[in-house]
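FORM 7B: Structural annotation worksheet

SECTION A. Query
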Amino acid sequence: MKIIESTLRIGVEAPFQIIHISDTHLTYADMRDGECKVELARGRKTCFPYDEEAVLQLAGDLSREKGIPIVHTGDLIDFVSVANLERAGRFVRENDCFLAAGNHEFSLYVGEAKEDAAYRNQSLATVQAAFSNDIRMASRMIGGVNFVALDNGYYLFEEAQLDFLKKEVEKGAPVVLLMHNPLYEPALYDIQMKKAPCAYLVGVPEARMQSYPPDRYEQQLADEATKQMLDYIAKTPAIQALITGHLHCNYEGVFAGRIPQVMTACDDVRLISIV
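SECTION B. Predicted structure
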């Protein structure tokens, strides 16, 4: 666990800082959810051999010390349980935190069913109640920059999200997008394909998905609404940076040849200076 420092050059009048964390994957459960969830928690904890409480503590301490907010790009919880939502809710209440949902925010048992809107909606209201901002789409002004959080945890965007983003851009401030899943970059795609049978990115060109396993191809193929969103992001000058997660690694790259894209590993805390 370490603190990483990065700079995003947006051209603000007064430089400021934020803290980025992602993919904490809290794995708490007790008998309020039954033995199956308790067993799930035991098994899933082995997938994340780091101290998630230490990460949250470090981010919270740094936030209070510097008087700056935390942005979290999803998968704060690993699956839906009373104990996970209680802990997540306590974190956002005790800290100045703005969050975008990840796919695991809505996971009931992790991988037991196809993840789509119907699956997400089974738990959406319960999960949303634990958080202070709308975790599917929300905005917050920080230091003169409009931070817009969008849920793309299932590798797709929706028409309503594009409409929302356009209205946020019309406010006239520089925009930083907070999303769980990173957007396609050729260099990041190449890195990912050396590690896995698919890249786990949004908007990979179909020609570069031909080797994907069929289920991953179906999962990650961009639909028309997603293509429209990606085109809008790429061509809109007001959108100045992307802060993402999902891949459980530290990375700094560039989307569409001009927009910095930053992600932070599960067990690290990133201090981002906006200048």
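SECTION C. Observations
The first strand starts at residue 3 and ends at 8. The mean pLDDT is 97.

SECTION D. Sign-off
Analyst initials: ____
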